[in-house]
Specification:
Elements (H helix, E strand, L loop, with lengths): L18 H17 L7 H16 L7 H14 L13 H20 L3 H4 L37 H14 L6 H10 L1 H11 L3 H7 L6 H12 L3 H21 L3 H6 L1 H8 L1
Length: 269
């Protein structure tokens, strides 16, 4: 799939199902509002619903947490109340469990097709010393949206390394920000594979990717990786917590209080 462009949404949107499934659900929802009767699903309808919802989940998360499955199941019941299951919490516990199994099967299918973010944990991709299924499992952390993306179409390790070497030359040319930005965007997947597989030190990254350590590229790389704008997010959080921070700062004494006196005077104005 192409790079993810957003984090898990606040309100998970249930996708459109096939025409016949949508027709049956519409009738079922109408009958439910009148008589509270649940819709009896055929195997085909159940498969269609689980497949479409799993695909929608995968747009945001490769390895969803329990809360994500809960959100997806609750959204499904909210949109189609005829799918409620009597006796389960919120009427959606069974759907949550089904979605978990479906996502596991969906990942297996994508892994067989060679999707990098799933194949990275295959035994073939591990070193001999790590050839154990549960050892050094690589998964997104801290809301990483594009943890291990695919290479751009037609690109290989050799072609990506060629672009990286070109970047080392481009960074020394004045007024060359646009060219550097394009090449950095093109090599994002190559860079992520390097970081995940080789776990280089900061100095090694600086030597190989000096363009990455400019303010503009740090912000852009964060946006690519997290699907969240770094500066905007930081400033928004700073605004949210600024009043509490000021209270903490005002409570300081001694040398610290003297150092920040001018800053506090400016804030007071």
């Amino acid at each position: 799939m192409s790079s993810r462009t957003q984090q898990w949404p606040e309100d998970f949107a249930i996708p459109q199902f096939s025409y016949d499934t949508e027709l049956q659900l519409e009738r079922g929802n109408t009958e439910y509002r009148v008589s509270q009767k649940m819709l009896t699903l055929s195997a085909r309808m159940l498969s269609d619903i689980l497949k479409r919802v799993a695909e929608e989940i995968y747009r945001y998360k490769v390895y969803p947490e329990d809360a994500h499955f809960c959100a997806a199941a609750e959204a499904l019941i909210k949109k189609h109340p005829c799918l409620k299951e009597p006796g389960s919490f919120n009427g959606c516990y069974g759907w949550k469990q089904r979605l978990k199994y479906k996502m596991a099967n969906y990942r297996t299918q994508l892994k067989l097709q060679g999707y990098p973010e799933l194949c990275v944990n295959s035994l073939k991709s591990k070193a001999t010393t790590d050839a154990f299924p549960a050892k050094k499992v690589k998964k997104p952390k801290r809301s990483e949206a594009n943890f291990y993306p695919s290479f751009p179409t037609g690109e290989t390790l050799d072609s990506m390394e060629k672009v990286r070497l070109e970047l080392l030359t481009e960074i020394g040319i004045r007024d060359n920000e646009r060219v550097i930005a394009d090449k950095m965007a093109n090599t994002f997947a190559y860079r992520r594979h390097e970081v995940v597989n080789q776990e280089p030190s900061i100095q090694e990254l600086k030597d190989r990717w000096p363009a990455l350590f400019t303010q503009k590229e740090i912000n852009t790389e964060f946006q690519r990786l997290m699907a969240v704008p770094l500066e905007w997010k930081f400033m928004a959080q700073l605004d949210m917590h600024s009043s509490q921070l000021i209270k903490v700062i005002r409570a300081k004494g001694g040398a610290t209080r003297q150092k920040i006196a001018n800053i506090m005077d400016t804030l007071d104005q």
